[in-house]
Write a structure and sequence with these properties.
mainly alpha
Length: 461
């Protein structure tokens, strides 16, 4: 009996000591799963928990090791998302490039629309306040318009429309502040140009009625008051619930213009805007919002209803300056190519070419030189001033800067009687900076010396 009890006790101890180990189901699943899926799941888990660099490294390993994997597209999109979540200027720039690469390589996948929206949101996150650099806002507007044009019926189209309204609110606010500055300063031309473009491009802007009122006041102070009535009428017709409508109607009656009826679509739009709940910043968070670089206030007051502007800013009508007096055609930055010429010997007009350095024979002779008159009469009728100057330069007989015709060397036999006429022309030229023919000969000699130096470099002897 004692032996049986001891045997049973020994068996119980053996069972306790040799208990079965628990099987880890996740480890078993990993052993049976494909290696590319294991890499993808691990990388996405790292990105989800903030380990962006480790996740990107695993995804890049997946792309390089398994180029034919079914997770290749998802891996590329995961890399772009990791850059986007990590934030920072450098990472967001990498995210934009990664999303665009995904759109290029996988344009027909469902995730291509998501990638296009993420490109816009990357610029949206970097937007600054309206009075600062608007580069990111313009790029966000362009990318959102591209998304709505390519995927108008997508599930994310509503989100893209709202973000486009917010971006255009920021852009319009920047133009409004500039126009208001010129309006207060009294520069009507600059204020009218800026405000007119703004109200025509962004009709959903929250202060469009105020901009129209300022435009009406600008034109009301000029002789063309019919333009003012157009802007007052737009307030009554397109913004019927605005507090400026009674004043606009009064101005229209004073100008003798019929008051238009309110547009039913505008009434419905403004009613829906007033009934839309909006998020308000608490008094505690308002001081902190001043330290934020983003346009917090503009995003809250942006329109929630209506279709935003879908045309790019470059294609929109910039308008003409209607306040410029008369027909003033401005040709800024156009090179005329005119070379200044110095008249020689009286008020007579010289030739138009810049090459004509020597004056003509008619202007050269002074009134008191009888010898010069005789020499001028003896000169051939067909000889031009430029020809005589060139001959003088070639022969080296041109007078010096302060010399006269008498101090010049004697002409040779081939020159004939033309040389005295050249001497008379040299006397008529101003002596302050030297004669023009002397300047021409100096230039000719200088160019000849340069040629000789160049030849010496090529031929030493």
């Amino acid at each position: 009996m004692t032996a049986v009890i001891l045997l049973s006790a020994t068996r119980c101890d053996a069972q306790i000591l040799h208990k079965k180990k628990k099987v880890n189901k996740s480890t078993a699943a990993e052993n049976t799963a494909e290696p590319d899926k294991i890499l993808y799941d691990k990388a996405m888990d790292d990105i989800k928990h903030g380990r962006q660099e480790i996740g990107r490294l695993n995804l890049q390993t997946l792309i390089n090791t398994y180029p034919d994997s079914e997770y290749l597209a998802k891996a590329k999109l995961g890399i772009a998302d990791s850059y986007y979540k990590e934030g920072g200027t450098a990472n967001l720039t990498q995210a934009v490039q990664a999303y665009k690469d995904f759109i290029i390589f996988f344009p027909f996948m469902q995730e291509a629309a998501y990638a296009q929206l993420q490109v816009a949101m990357t610029h949206f996150k970097q937007m600054e306040k309206p009075d600062r650099d608007r580069t990111q806002a313009l790029q966000a507007e362009d990318e959102l318009q591209t998304f709505l044009q390519k995927y108008p019926n997508h599930a994310l189209a509503g989100k893209a429309e709202q973000h486009l309204r917010e971006v255009q609110e920021v852009l319009a606010e920047g133009d409004y502040r500039i126009g208001y500055y010129y309006y207060v300063k009294g520069d009507k031309k600059a204020a009218e140009s800026r405000l007119r473009i703004m109200v025509n491009r962004y009709p959903l802007y929250s202060k469009a009625d105020q901009a129209l009122w300022m435009l009406g006041n600008i034109w009301d102070s000029t002789e063309k008051k019919e333009f003012a009535s157009n802007y007052y009428a737009r307030i009554v017709r397109d913004y019927p619930l605005s507090p400026l409508v009674p004043d606009a109607k009064g101005r229209l009656k004073a100008l003798g213009t019929p008051v238009p009826q309110a547009d039913p679509k505008a009434v419905a739009w403004m009613t829906a805007e007033q009934n839309t709940p909006r998020q308000h910043t608490s008094m505690v968070k308002k001081p902190m919002s001043l330290l934020h670089n983003g346009p917090t206030q503009e995003l809250q007051v942006a329109s929630r209803q209506g279709m935003p502007t879908m045309t790019p800013e470059s294609d929109s009508d910039s308008g003409t300056e209607t306040l410029s007096g008369g027909d003033q055609t401005r040709k800024g930055g156009t090179a005329t190519g005119i070379v200044a010429t110095v008249p020689v010997g009286g008020s007579g007009g010289g030739s138009g070419g810049a090459e004509n350095v020597a004056p003509s024979t008619e202007e050269a002779a002074p009134s008191g030189g009888s010898q010069a008159d005789a020499n001028a009469a003896a000169a051939p009728a067909g000889s031009s001033s430029s020809t005589s100057a060139s001959e003088a330069a070639k022969s080296g007989d041109a007078p010096t800067a302060g010399g006269t015709a008498d101090s010049a060397p004697k002409p040779d036999a081939a020159a004939g009687a033309a040389q005295p006429a050249d001497a008379a022309k040299a006397d008529a030229a101003p002596a302050k900076g030297g004669t023009q023919s002397g300047a021409a000969s100096d230039d000719q000699k200088e160019s000849t010396s340069k040629k000789k130096k160049g030849l010496r470099k090529l031929i030493p002897w």
